Amino acid sequence: METLTSGGDLLLTLLLHVAAAASISAWLARSAIFRKVLFTEVRDSDQKVRLMLFVTPALALGVMLRIVGHAYRFADLMLEGSFLLGLLGGRVVGPLGGSIISLPAFFNHEWLSTPVAAAAGLVGGLIRLAIPNTEEIWKLGPYTFLSTPRWLVRLFRRAKVSWEMLPLGACVALELGRQALGHATKLQWLFYLDVGHSWELALVLLSTVMAVAVPIKIWYNTRIEMNLEQSQQMLLKARMDALSAQINPHFLFNTLNTVSSLIRYDPDMARIVVIKLSKILRRLLRKHETFVPLQEELDFIDDYLDIEVARFGRDNLQIHKQIEEHTLDAFVPSMLLQPIVENALKHGLAGKLDGGEITIRTSIRDARLVIEIEDNGVGIPQDRMSQVFGDGIGISNVHERLRMLYGGDFRMDISSREGEGTRIRIEVPELIPTESQPSPVVPASNL
Prior knowledge:
Blueprint: E1 2-3, H1 7-28, H2 32-39, H3 45-68, H4 78-89, H5 93-101, H6 103-107, H7 113-130, H8 148-158, H9 165-185, E2 193-194, H10 198-244, H11 249-265, H12 267-285, E3 291-293, H13 294-312, E4 317-323, E5 331-333, H14 338-348, E6 356-365, E7 368-375, H15 395-406, E8 411-417, E9 421-429
Parallel strand pairs: 1-2, 4-6
Antiparallel strand pairs: 3-5, 6-7, 7-9, 8-9
């Protein structure tokens, strides 16, 4: 039992109590493992154990601080933490986690602490079991209690239950039960804030609700962030599929026509074209990687351009490469170059295949990989330059993928002059694999 001498002392303690709950929950949300546990609504045994391992030590430490120093009584979140573990983990995790949290108090001869904590965890677990859709738990917020009149009207007029009010009511009932039990025993067997006025009791009840609702709201926002990240990854995969689909039936039709013509007068070249085509299709059919070595991307472009050269003839289409050797191991987004090269062939060189040229350059400048694709085609009219990034699924898709993967840490510039050609310059961070990290990892904050 803790008796507070003034209203100001009580108010400060309760504010620090809620602040401690918010700080611990925000600190836990920084862990990638804990975030994954939160994101998974249906948790297996391993995830429930991880949930307890993350939550119980911090809350048990808070109980220890309250025992050690009178000034730290606000740090005791035993009741709220046990209830939260039950809400998130179920009727086994709640009582077990609550019992662990209460051990410092129990060893301090507060004999009722463990039964009370286990009961709070069990109540939370039973509420989780009773709610038809466990996602309703995340609707509990710091201001849910303001909706109580509306909930009562809906309950009596429409017989419609607002499930988020069930955890709210349970918080109030558990705190009232702790207060009643503490006053009934009149012994130092249970910690609670001893208040003498009804308005002080109302503040204690409000702080108990807040100490549960604030962590739920913080963790719910974390779940939303992870859901958005997953949605962006799915969008990225969909864009990858769209890029792969750019090797479209027209390309296959033209290639097969080329093979048909070559069979008559150059069977060996026809065989080479078929092999190149099979390598392209094999690459497109296999699982998409987000990043691939630049060497692999260039090999893919070689196969693609060899077929185009076979179609139009070496005199009509020439490919030049200025590749710095140390850039070949750098990782780049998969299918980065193909849509740019295809755009150069389709729009830049389509009307100028007598002496058409494509040049690919790579270099590293100040730990950044620079890739340039240049053609000597018809160029882009000035009135269309501002629309390049918004047209079609070629250049605009590449630009969007770079933005999603690198955030603002990339550059993609297009310079063009009518009748002279177009140059596309891409600059991204140099990503080189190491022995401990064979493939690069882009920070989730950039997604």
